[in-house]
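Technical note accompanying the year-one report. For the benefit of new consortium partners, we illustrate the data format agreed upon in the data management plan: each record pairs a sequence with a structure-token string. No post-processing was applied to the example shown here.
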Amino acid sequence: MEVASASRSDPWSTRPSSNGSPVVWNMTPRAETRKVTVYPEERILVGVGSKQRLIAMGRLSDGSQVDLTQQVRYTSNDDSIAAVDEAGEITAKRRGETSIMIRTVGQAAVAKVAVIQQVAERDYPAITGGTLSMCPFTQN
């Protein structure tokens, strides 16, 4: 008699054994996902077309941590700002802010995304002295 483990993609699937005899499944109880965390949790994308790959990690009921990146569903709250594919790769579409939802059975996480046109230059104007002197709360 052949003993088989359930496949990762479909634990309830059946298949005939290599010799045609029935397969006895070794169905050990699985740990359940207790929490999903996404990395990075926040990201600023510079320029239309820039990309960022998300990583989804799951904390299981047995205390272990597993990579769920390929097993979760990704959706953008606003595809016109940033789109996300089934592998978790975000693509900037236009300037703005949105969130990417990461979901699995009974759990969800959020990655916040901002798209900007360009990074501020190094010579960005500095705040000059005396600006607070106009504030009535700083008067002596």
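Partners are asked to follow this layout when depositing records. Confidence is low (pLDDT under 50) at residues 1-13.
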